[in-house]
Design goal:
The complex is a heterodimer of chains A (530) and B (360). With 530 residues, chain A is an alpha+beta fold. Chain A has 14 helices and 14 strands. In chain B, helix 8 links the parallel strand 14 and strand 15.
Chain lengths: 530, 360
């Protein structure tokens, strides 16, 4: 009996091994493109309406970023053409610096390829997923390649590419390429065909571009919608925004995995110089303090630091007092420009904007700007409208999950003249604008739709709102008072004659007495406050 | 002081304030149960003296103007020796453009304020209620009225109305009476009044029957008061066995109301006694009953808490609590369970003979 059992087990063992070998044959690395092919909702392609917005958003964000980096006042042309039901062609063209020929395929047709991921600098795109995901989406829904024309100088020819993405290898596939003539001095044009749906309303492409124009007052956008209607959002200013500076990471914002990776890759061999050179605000003295606390030798070779040692190092960093990162790396819109821009886009009675001084969350510098518009074309008796921006990019989805929404609901608006039931958005003819600029905006997901509610960020938003709110409150009070004053006058004119009639009917009054009484009465009533 | 003079004096005060560039104001006693007290020796609800002041400001200007115009209207009606019903006064205000009253309760409230301010009754201002009919009278009574044309006295014999009855008018101050009745029986419902009248209950019982038809009008209250005082005869009240019968009808008749406290002194019948239907009657006479309604329970609680009359009458407090505990109410006409004329043959004789079964 026992023997048979043993044999059985051995047999089984053998079987398992064989099965594992079979399975191993099927194992292979999943490419990033393939992964996103299956999880496109993570990138903002959950439905046809949103897909159209996401594609345009990615292309426009890239264009503005590129122009800003090259110090060119951006002039962007967006065109949507309807081909047939649920099939659209999107063309986005800019006057940016252009892309050198060799880089074009990788920039547009390889996910996670880009210039921005490995640095800390306030910019619109970061991960290098955006535009390639749009190319991928177009390819998946229509099978069509994406067409790119780019030119870097008037002296050089323009290059045309038609690209696909090889989803297994995460590599571009060049369908065709050629030199073409293009009358532009420099710039880039992308043309995609995709399955989509065009809609108007609060989450539409129209709304996105309008909002993008508000927070990018130096950008000119020309937009032709599928109905062939042309909108021009002109520049509010010719001055380009202050160029955001690139900074090294602050030790407080680092996570263990990142720290280990940095230790392995660093060209600074010794641990002490690793700390002072790779991070901002770490002086030799601070570095020594950290290392002492972590009980690590300053001369340890960085790449040989073990996982446990890295953890000790991280804990020591947390227990050491380190100055805040430099804050001059951010580029706000500026309260005056924001106000001007809002006034240009809509007709309102009141507009106030504020730019908060920079602050820090998890070692990342950030700053908050807020604006409130009131009255005019804004709708009465409804929840206030909210426009959210991260690094000058409008956020149209996931409003409820966003830190801005939380901060607005948590602010007491009743004292600022807007009615509000506890814990919800205030009601009234108002628009609230919140912009967060940071070297690293903490989004709640890859599709970058909502800002994660870090307490430091929420607090700054609240302070900005309160400052605008106080001004709104005094405006509304003044307005109310003026209306009341007017009503009061009207009321007096209506009823004063009846007091006179009553008195005349009861008593005999001569004309001069009557006039005196009337005059006095008017005086008494106009002085009365109630 | 004549009402006309009171109106003029008040208007003059307003005028003088205005001439001095000061805000004019008028003071009115607060008309509610919270502003009355009850002293059994006096026998009626008296004002405690809390007043509200209507100062002329922008927010009070409309009511202030309406009050002055209503005073002017009153003066005019008095001078013409005429009368206007409350409803007519309301319609007259429709000529006042912006100062007109939108609904009659608004003009009634201003009228009541003026009454209270001058401590007069509505009729002295030249106004009458005019809506609901006055109480009905039958039995051993001759009302001596004055003919409006000949100005000569006329005698109205209240035994001569057959199955009908004499109806009490709005103004009765000039009335005189002739009677040999032993008591006045005041009845809540017209149905019960008609039953007793049809069988000429008043003849054998030697009494005067008065039917109120709900809460008695002011002139009905005044009529009973004047008659009982002039002829020195007792007044017995017969209502349904429910909080409304006890405290909206009987209590108002006996001691007056909070709303008209400024005139209670003349419009109450302190000597009135309650002969039925008491909560104990519901048990003793095995009367069919209904569950107390929500409004009944609310009324009981309210009375127990706020009514100054109840506080001076422990027997009423006991009765009310008994009713609350029983949780039921019974109507006068429930007596018909024992036969249509049970009320005449048994109930009333028994109750009238037994003072212990009454309530104060």
């Amino acid at each position: 009996m026992t023997q048979t059992k043993l044999i059985d087990i051995k047999k089984k063992d053998n079987n398992v091994k064989i099965k594992a070998e079979e399975l191993a044959k099927e194992l292979r690395s999943v490419s990033v493109s393939e992964f996103f092919e299956k999880n496109r909702h993570l990138l903002g392609y959950d439905n046809l309406t949103k897909a159209l917005l996401t594609v345009i958003k990615e292309a426009v964000d890239n264009s503005i970023d590129a122009c800003e980096e090259a110090n060119i006042p951006a002039d962007i042309n967006v065109k949507i053409e309807k081909l047939k039901t649920n099939k659209f062609k999107v063309i986005v063209e800019d006057n940016g610096p252009g892309i050198v020929k060799e880089h074009i395929p990788a920039v547009f047709a390889s996910l996670l390829y880009g210039s921005k991921f490995h640095r800390l600098r306030q910019s619109r795109g970061i991960q290098g997923i955006g535009i390639s995901s749009a190319v991928l989406y177009a390819q998946l829904t229509t099978g069509k390649s994406t067409k790119i024309v780019s030119k870097i100088s008037p002296k050089r020819p323009a290059h045309f590419y038609a690209l696909h993405i090889n989803t297994l290898k995460n590599e571009p596939e060049i369908v065709s390429e050629k030199e073409v003539s293009w009358k532009k001095d420099h710039g880039t044009k992308v043309e995609l065909e995709l399955e989509a749906n065009y809609q108007k309303g609060s989450r539409s492409v129209d709304q996105y571009l309008k909002q993008a124009a508000i927070v990018n007052p130096h950008v000119k956008i020309t937009y032709t919608n599928p109905e062939n209607k042309k909108f021009i959002f002109p520049r509010t200013t010719k001055d380009l925004p202050v160029e955001p500076k690139e900074i090294k990471p602050h030790p407080y914002g680092i996570e263990l995995g990142v720290l280990i990776r940095m230790l392995k890759m660093s060209k600074h061999k010794k641990l002490k110089s690793f700390l002072t050179k790779e991070f901002s605000r770490v002086s030799p003295k601070i570095a020594e303090e950290i290392l002492k606390l972590a009980q690590l030798d300053p001369t340890t070779i960085s790449s040989e630091v073990s996982r446990d040692e890295a953890e000790k190092l991280l804990n020591a960093i947390k227990d050491t007092k380190i100055r805040n990162p430099p804050l001059d790396c951010l580029s706000p819109i500026g309260s005056d420009l924001l106000k001007k821009s809002l006034r240009k886009e809509m007709d309102v009675d009141f507009c106030e904007a504020i730019t908060r001084p920079p602050s820090v969350y998890r070692g990342f510098p950030f700053l908050v700007e807020a604006a409130i518009c009131y009255g005019g074309e804004l709708e009465q008796e409804k929840s206030v409208k909210l426009q959210r921006f991260a690094n000058k990019v409008p956020l149209l989805y996931q409003q409820a999950a966003c830190a801005t929404t939380k901060a607005i609901s948590g602010t007491k608006w009743n004292s600022y003249g807007l009615s509000q039931s506890r814990g919800s958005l205030p009601v009234g003819p108002a628009l609230i604008v919140v912009h967060i600029a940071s070297v690293w905006v903490p989004f709640t997901s890859e599709s970058k739709e909502a800002i994660a509610p870090y307490p430091e960020i929420e607090k700054e938003i609240r302070l900005a709102l309160q400052e605008c709110g106080r001004k709104l409150g005094s405006f509304i009070r003044k307005k109310k008072k003026a209306v009341q004053e007017e009503q009061k006058k009207e009321y007096i004119t209506t009823f004063l004659p009846h007091i006179m009639i009553g008195l005349k009917d009861i008593l005999d009054l001569n004309e001069s007495k009557e006039k005196r009484i009337e005059k006095n009465l008017k005086e008494i009533l106009e002085k009365s406050r109630k | 002081m004549k009402t006309e003079t009171k109106i003029e004096k008040e208007a003059e005060e307003v005028l003088n304030k205005i001439l001095k560039k000061q805000k004019p104001s008028m003071k009115f006693p607060i008309r509610s149960l919270s502003n009355v007290k009850y002293d059994p020796k006096h026998g009626f609800f008296e004002l405690k003296g809390q007043k509200k002041e209507r100062t002329l400001t922008v927010s009070t200007i409309k009511t202030f103007a309406q009050t002055l115009r209503m005073m002017a209207l009153s003066k005019e009606v008095i001078r013409k020796n005429d009368i206007a019903t409350k409803r007519e006064a309301y319609y007259i205000s429709k000529n006042w453009e912006a100062a007109k009253f939108d609904e009659q309760p608004e003009s009634d409230a201003v009228m009541d304020d003026i009454e209270a301010m001058f401590a007069v009754n509505r009729e002295q201002l030249g106004f009458v209620a005019g809506e609901k009919g006055g109480g009905l009278v039958a039995g051993d009574l001759k009302v001596i009225d004055i003919d409006s044309e000949t100005k000569k006295p006329i005698e109205i014999d209240c035994t001569q109305f057959g199955s009908g009855a004499y109806s009490i008018p709005s103004i009765i101050e000039h009335f005189n009476f002739k009677t040999s009745a032993k008591f006045i029986l005041v009845i809540e419902t017209i149905g019960m009044f008609e039953r007793l009248n049809k069988h000429k209950y008043w003849r054998n019982a030697k009494c005067i029957l008065i039917g109120m038809g709900g809460v008695p009008t002011r002139s009905t209250r005044r009529f009973i008061r004047k008659l009982s005082d002039a002829k020195n005869i007792p007044v017995y009240v017969f209502t349904d066995g429910d909080p409304y019968g006890y405290f909206s009808i009987y209590r108002t008749l006996k001691v007056g109301s909070g709303n008209a406290a400024h005139i209670n002194e003349y419009f109450c019948v302190p000597k009135a006694k309650f002969i039925g239907i008491t909560p104990q009657d519901i048990i003793d006479f095995k009367l069919p009953s209904h569950k107390l309604k929500e409004v009944d329970n609310k009324k009981i609680k309210d009375v127990l808490k706020n009514d100054p009359f109840l506080k001076e009458n422990k027997e009423w407090e006991k009765a009310l609590k008994q009713l609350e505990k029983m949780g039921v109410r019974a109507e006068q006409q429930a007596l018909a369970k024992w036969g249509l004329n049970y009320v005449i043959d048994k109930y009333l004789p028994k109750k009238l003979a037994d003072k212990k079964s009454w309530l104060p």
